[in-house]
From TrEMBL:
Pfam families the UniProt entry points to: ABC_export
UniProt protein name: ABC exporter domain-containing protein
Keywords per UniProt: Membrane, Transmembrane, Transmembrane helix
Lineage: Bacteria, Pseudomonadati, Bacteroidota, Cytophagia, Cytophagales
Signal peptide: none
Transmembrane segments: 29-46, 71-93, 122-144, 156-181, 193-210, 252-274, 346-366, 373-395, 425-444, 450-472, 484-507, 513-534
Domain of life: Bacteria
Length: 546
């Protein structure tokens, strides 16, 4: 117990120092104040709307006198459940490849050499890992809760079970991954775990295919099993859904039952970890060091290794003459892409994502899917490339000495850094959208609008990541300003464009005009951000890192 108190005191001192660091510059609290202000503003507006919408409407009945199925709600619940299941299976699969670490290198260097039992260190840090999950859950509730206030009452019980359902799902994954990797290294059960994951994936696919094929239309039945109440019994995903569903069913006993299942599961995992983990230092050191390397790459402190995720690092290349000057950046990215995939311009992932779009278009012709599924997939792709822009890993190159020494304009350098990405995106967009539009019989204007929209989405995400990273030296400033930028861009740029697009869709009932409206609105946002990024880049000075 004294050892746990010592670890707790250490964390309290860290928390105190961080608070003092923030108090030295109170301006860092402005983004959080803005976030809280946004929550109360939206919450107040939603509550006014809720007061106007409250009525005693009776559900619509079918010819047999039974309530009609709300397919929209069913597919939303089922789709989110499938995404959560996919994330769960992915995390389980990752557990067979590498261990999860609850530590930093500072923890490893200071704690592992101290007079503290390794089991106590592991259990304390494993339990403490719920704090990031709770933080993410609170952010989710601040945004999502304010949006739901117009339809649901945000009572103390509703808020509590939403927080717990969201946080416990992400929290329990790390202990599970740690236990799986421990069992794998001790008993070599890799193949058995992979077989189990494959079986679960096949069963999930069957649970979507069978009700979809037996329904009048595939999209009407595809999530009827996954979205049904009995699926709440599925471990972790169903339990969290059941807890968060307290917002609707208001069954306190059921919600506490799912919470009890989580507590029992965590207790069993902890017992198994204590029994099988033993002296886990070597595995944790490896995972912790790997995490530290990845963080340094994101910060631009180390070169990105061409070996990461590459298919063949020793591949013999016969590349054309790219020229001199800023084109060296394009050459560098081209070489890395050539080793990373079977072709530098169009790889495996692009082929899979484009193929899915074409499959949706074909199935819509056979009346398995409505065009709404393909339209939704197009919007998901735009969001995916927005996230891809945020995750652009090589922005750290913009602070490297060679970026300053190459004799070319700032605009030329920046263009050549992202040129390969732009070419890859254009090729992917054309390969996916042209056959999809022609097969599904969509409006021909969807082709150029989608191509422009995907470029705009990528550039917005890239600039959101680029501007604070290259203009700010302090990591705390970057952590605070980037969320503030994203909130501002969403509030005053992306969300207004989406709302305007939805209004256009309501009046015209045409997806193409909605997509065009959203793309035009986001183009203005992208133009402003690109201008700011180039201005910040032109003022950048090289500073030698210690």
């Amino acid at each position: 117990m004294n050892e746990v108190k010592l670890l707790f005191r250490k964390d309290l001192w860290v928390l105190k120092n961080n608070i003092l660091l923030i108090l030295r510059n109170p301006a860092r609290l402005i983004p959080y104040a803005g976030l809280i202000g946004y929550f109360f503003f939206i919450y107040t507006m939603r509550m006014k709307d809720r007061a106007k919408k409250l009525d005693n409407s009776i559900p619509e009945m079918d010819v047999n006198g039974l309530p009609e199925v709300d397919f929209a709600t069913q597919n939303i619940v089922g789709g989110i459940t499938v995404l959560a299941l996919g994330f769960l299976l992915y995390q389980l699969f990752r557990a067979t490849k590498r261990n999860v670490s609850f530590f930093t290198m500072a923890d490893v260097n200071l704690l592992f050499t101290g007079p503290v039992k390794p089991q106590n260190i592991l259990l304390y840090y494993m339990g403490r890992s719920i704090l990031p999950s709770l933080g993410g859950s609170i952010i989710f509730l601040i945004y999502g809760g304010s949006q739901m206030a117009g339809s649901f009452e945000l009572s103390l019980g509703n808020i509590l079970f939403i927080l717990l359902g969201f946080a416990l799902f992400f929290f329990i994954l790390s202990p599970i991954r740690f236990l799986i990797y421990t069992l794998h290294t001790k008993y070599d059960i890799l193949e058995k775990i992979k077989t189990l994951i494959t079986v679960l994936a096949v069963l999930l696919a069957i649970m979507i295919l069978i009700p979809g094929l037996t329904a009048e239309k595939f999209w009407q039945g595809m999530f009827s099993w996954v979205a049904s109440p009995w699926f709440d019994l599925f471990p972790f995903v169903g339990w969290s859904r059941g807890m968060m569903g307290y917002l609707v069913h208001q069954n306190l006993i059921l919600a506490f039952a799912f919470l009890g299942l989580y507590i029992l599961s965590y207790y069993l995992i902890v017992r198994l970890v204590i029994q099988f983990a033993g002296y886990y230092y070597e595995d944790v050191l490896e995972a912790t060091k790997s995490n530290e390397v990845q963080r340094d790459k994101v910060k631009g402190k180390r070169e990105n290794s061409e070996a990461t995720y590459s298919l063949n690092t020793k591949k013999q290349l016969a590349l054309p003459d790219f020229g001199v000057g800023a084109k060296a950046f394009y050459w560098r990215n081209y070489v890395h892409a050539s080793r990373q995939d079977f072709h530098p311009l169009f790889g495996v992932y692009s082929l899979i994502i484009a193929g899915l779009g074409i499959v949706f278009a074909i199935l819509s012709n056979f009346d398995w899917f409505s065009h709404k599924v393909l339209n939704g997939y197009v919007l998901v792709i735009l969001g995916f490339y927005f996230l891809a822009g945020i995750g652009r890993a090589s922005v750290g190159d913009l602070k490297k000495p060679y970026f300053f020494l190459i004799p070319a304009t700032w605009t030329s350098k920046f263009w050549n850094v992202i040129k390969l990405d732009i070419v890859q995106i254009l090729l992917f967009a054309v390969v996916m959208i042209v056959p999809s539009v022609l097969i599904a019989g969509l409006h021909i204007l969807v082709i150029p609008v989608f191509i422009l929209g995907i470029l705009v989405s990528y550039m917005i995400g890239l600039c959101i990541n680029l501007i604070p990273q290259i203009s700010l030296e302090e990591s705390w400033d970057r952590k605070l300003i980037k969320p503030a930028m994203m909130i501002g861009i969403f509030l005053f740029g992306i969300i207004p464009a989406l709302v305007l697009g939805i209004l256009v869709f309501v009046f015209t009932r045409q997806f193409v005009w909605m997509l065009l409206t959203v793309t035009i609105g986001m183009s203005f946002v992208a133009g402003i951000l690109i201008h700011v990024a180039l201005d910040v880049l032109s003022r950048l000075e090289f500073k030698e890192e210690n």
